[in-house]
């Protein structure tokens, strides 16, 4: 177990309590950040990178058919493993926006494509539910259960505003625990049903939910009614029978008094580490616990916590999320210290074994990355046209640090150098160029020549392409050659026009 301090590079203000960290296609994504960070990331979703003790963010694009995804704090987030041909994905329900609006929507987040420069594009779709639909809420959980060859999603807990008929001017923004109902919905048909169980007689929020096969365990949580964090532990058993499901609940005696904790999985088995959280409004939970789910049920083991720094020990609040198996991003406020310009201190806590860390460091040490454009202006979606590059062709490419978010870039229109080599007869000076196509905003449009040693990028202007043909090529998936390597094949150009 290690704890490493992190230096945020122009991104500390984007991580706020209630944000979520997702792991999609091997990349850590930040969702639910503070406000809308100017033009460099209109989607509000960022890729998070840790390197040499620094934390950087890069803009994540959405596909053209994606819906609007508001910046949600404390939503219920559930990962869906690939199954039946469906890709790895995430379900996001509810949440609270920075404007204190509480959502009742359900979104499905999947990877759409991997472009050049390892740039990730994701797709967001809103899913409609029918039947007994859960209302707007935040601080709740969602879990996936499998029974009798079927799969369903379990939603429980959370809090919301008081019912409309009970709200007054003084209590307009007062929140209450949602009724202790369990919602079960089928993602394939979008049918939702509500279930009331006698064991669940009190609402709870900011609890933990862990699922294994047909059981979900609810751990801890905060109750507004009693203003307490009782050491609760429930086991919900779900049988997905034909017709209507059968739900049963059992109260267990080995719970943990905790709320708003961070949980990370440590390996392929159902073993988790619980870190952070609160025992009371004024007391953080400084201990760490391992949670193991097996055929016998649930087990808790004590884990040695990190050596907390004075900043962590004396802070009143902390937050964060899992950044992968056995790894956690932890943030504590600077408590308004004038000597500290950032809003939070950040740490990366790793519960990996020593040999696993060495293997990971060895892999990272072999990676090839270019830093020539660390200070370049962030790209917008339409600033550059990418041309059908396969994932296996990206091994020697940079990882796109030019997309890192920078708060000072809003008015920065400086023109910087470019990181490519063009064809032998290139007439474009990347440092003094003027836009040639209407699609160019900050950098020349490029195509990727697949021939030659490793391939290389070529200015579209040097290829003497019309803008119409340039746009059509950008929407294809074929490989093309520059003039030095035979030029674009006429048959390919004709086929493009025939299909269009």
TrEMBL record:
Domain Recombination activating protein 2 PHD: 417-488
A Pfam family hit: RAG2_PHD
Keyword entries, A-Z: Chromatin regulator, DNA recombination, Metal-binding, Nucleus, Zinc, Zinc-finger
Ranges where the record places region Disordered: 358-379, 391-411
Primary subcellular site in the record, as a coarse category: nucleus
Biased composition regions of type Polar residues, renumbered to the chain: 367-379
Cellular compartment(s): Nucleus
GO terms, molecular function: double-stranded DNA endonuclease activity; sequence-specific DNA binding; zinc ion binding
Residues annotated to bind Zn(2+): 422, 426, 449, 456, 459, 462, 482, 485
InterPro entries registered for this protein in UniProt: Gal_Oxase/kelch_b-propeller, Kelch-typ_b-propeller, RAG2, RAG2_PHD, Znf_FYVE_PHD
Designated name of the protein: V(D)J recombination-activating protein 2
Organism in which the protein naturally occurs: Anabas testudineus (Climbing perch)
Organism classification: Eukaryota, Metazoa, Chordata, Craniata, Vertebrata
Recorded name of the encoding gene: RAG2
